[in-house]
Specification:
Radius of gyration: 14 Å
Shape: globular
Structural class: mainly beta
Oligomer: single chain
Distance between the termini: 36 Å
Number of helices: 1
Strand content: 35-45%
């Protein structure tokens, strides 16, 4: 299965092909974004997006569709101390990245 990155519209690469799932990623322009999703039987189970602001701040969101929850945070992906867990998944509109960044920041602020 071929997937297109919803941020930059470029082809995504197959990162891991496991028996139970496949991980696809877009790392075409790491200065602006990173997008990864995990699929099983062509259904997206999880996705992670990182968008980099002009000042270098990284805004991140990870959706767990298979667990009906999400995490949002800023900064380093390895530092899990500032992640905010949300007990639901929410719509992500990739057509307007500024609105998406504001939405993620709003979840961080009010959760």
């Amino acid at each position: 299965m071929n997937y297109t990155c919803p941020v930059c519209q470029k082809n995504m690469g197959l990162e891991a092909d496991r028996i139970k799932y496949q991980d696809y990623s877009c790392r075409n322009d790491l200065d602006t974004h990173m997008y990864i999703h995990r699929a099983k039987n062509e259904q997206i189970l999880q996705l992670k997006i990182r968008i980099t602001e002009a000042d270098g701040t990284k805004i991140c969101c990870k959706m767990y569709y298979d667990q009906c929850c999400a995490e949002v945070w800023t900064g380093n992906s390895n530092d899990k101390s500032n992640r905010v867990k949300i007990d639901q998944v929410f719509d992500i509109d990739f057509s307007d990245l500024e609105k998406l960044k504001k939405k993620i920041k709003m979840y961080m602020l009010f959760s």
